[in-house]
Amino acid sequence: MTPLLAACGITVRYGSLAALDGVDLRVDPGQRHALIGPNGAGKTTLLNVIAGATRPRTGRILLAGRDVTRRGPAARARRGIGRIHQRPAVWATLTVAENVEVAALPHAVRPGRWRPGGTRAAARRTADTLLARVGLADLAGRAAGQLAHGQRRQLEIAMALAGRPRLLLLDEPAAGLSATEVGRLVEFLRDLPRAVAVLLVEHRLDLVYALCDTVTVLRDGRPLAAGTPSEIRASAQVRQAYAEGVG
Ligand SMILES: Nc1ncnc2c1ncn2[C@@H]1O[C@H](COP(=O)(O)OP(=O)(O)OP(=O)(O)O)[C@@H](O)[C@H]1O
Ligand SMILES: [Mg+2]
């Protein structure tokens, strides 16, 4: 099977620090893949490289077999990469609905059939559907800057899904959420169609084990282990790495 995502030999340096040092990672279509590891291991950096926000010093990114290494974030989003950030990124002065509409607009245009009104209406319909799915329908007219942290997270997920991703990159989606919100998030991610593969960075191992079928452990910019949740849970090497620092 052609992997949906293949990151091959990725190296990123900041001065003398190797944030990533020759990392390989493969995500298959529909897979739920977790990326875990102590603080500073390089998890966010790897998501940035996959999304096109950080250019690696060496290595290649293949999306469904096509080399996108030289493509920027917008081109990769068009080819099916959606993401949510470690700190939620929304347009604070736009309404909740407008945030999702903006994210949906590029995908609402049907080739050869562009009509400004029709395109906007299609984006609005997408926004309505997605806001209902993430439980924000009642807040559609509110300015996004007024949302509480957990609601902002839900909004960012709706925005990412508006781009119809084949691969969803999630950077610590449960951070700062209440127990109820975490429960809702887990249910939501469990119900995502298998047409969407997920690469989840998460410190909460209970969520990782509940949601993912494959786990890759990074440490100091290098893959330390990879396997099923039970293999990773049993690994003394992984336990040692976590004992030395995770926050
Ligand atoms: N823009 C930058 N400039 C300099 N150093 C950076 C930059 N971004 C990341 N780093 C460093 O690269 C290393 C990897 O950082 P990264 O944010 O990818 O870690 P992480 O695994 O996501 O950690 P956390 O779990 O704390 O979010 C860290 O040592 C970090 O300080
Ligand atoms: Mg991070």
Description:
With 247 residues, the protein is an alpha/beta fold. The chain folds into two domains: 163 residues, Rossmann fold (3-Layer(aba) Sandwich), CATH 3.40.50; 74 residues, no CATH class. Helices cover 38% and strands 24% of the residues. It is built from nine helices and ten strands. The strands form two sheets. A six-stranded mixed beta sheet has the order 6-7-8-3-9-10, with helices on both faces. Helix 4 crosses helix 5. The protein is globular. The two termini are 36 Å apart. The mean pLDDT is 91. The structure holds adenosine-5'-triphosphate (ATP) and magnesium ion. The site of magnesium ion (MG) has 3 residues, from helix 1.
Keywords:
6-stranded mixed β-sheet; binds magnesium ion; 10 strands; Rossmann fold; alpha/beta; 4-stranded antiparallel β-sheet; 247 residues
Summarize the structure.
This protein is 38% helix and 24% strand. By secondary structure, it is α/β, with parallel strands linked by helices. The protein has two domains: 1-80 and 165-247, Rossmann fold, CATH 3.40.50; 90-163, no CATH class.
